[in-house]
Amino acid sequence: MDKFDNQIITLLQRDARMSVSDIAREVSLSRSAVTARIKKLEQDNVILGYHAQIAHPEHHNNVSAYFALKFDMSADLYSCEKYAEKLYRIRGVKWCHAISGETDLMIYVEAQSMTQLNAIRDELQQNPQLRNLRTHTVLKELFNTTKQTELP
Fold it and tell me: Which of 9, 40, 76, 78 has the greatest number of C-beta atoms within 10 Å?
């Protein structure tokens, strides 16, 4: 690798979508020379891929929470399944699980604001069979294998 390769890598790290023409202009090489160098860097496994850098969810105003729902004893798994059909239509509800123990349903919600989260909670409380609703607000996500986040 020489100074041109290093300059190309630096530019691509800054903006992986930078055009070959713009890179060529920045490093004072022809487009064909830059194209050949990028191809060689890829073949030599110096450049392993091009990625979109996504803002971490903490940088947004989003809020998420788990809701633990307990119903009257008359509620059985079948009625929980019917209620889950209604939950599916609520914007922000990401998943719902029927679970064992003191809680009948556990749902996970992502909202754009605390106001929206409270509106979802208010909607959940409209069910006449609901005996108890506990809210567990997410303070910080430590890792999530479904989103491929890494430990800090």
Answer: 9
DSSP β-bridge partners for residue 63: 111
- 20, 36, 117 from 135: Cα distances, Å: 51, 57, 10
The verdict on 63 and 7 lying in the same domain is no
Q: How many CB atoms lie within 10 A of CB 93?
A: 20
| pLDDT tens-digit readout, 73-127 | 665 655 778 888 889 999 999 999 999 988 999 999 999 889 999 999 999 999 8
Strands 93-98 and 130-137, how do they pair?
A: unpaired
* Collapsed DSSP state (helix, strand, coil) of residue 94: strand
Calpha distance 97→81 (Å, rounded)? 9
Domain of residue 62 covers 57-137
Dihedral sign computed on CA atoms, order 146, 147, 148, 149:
negative
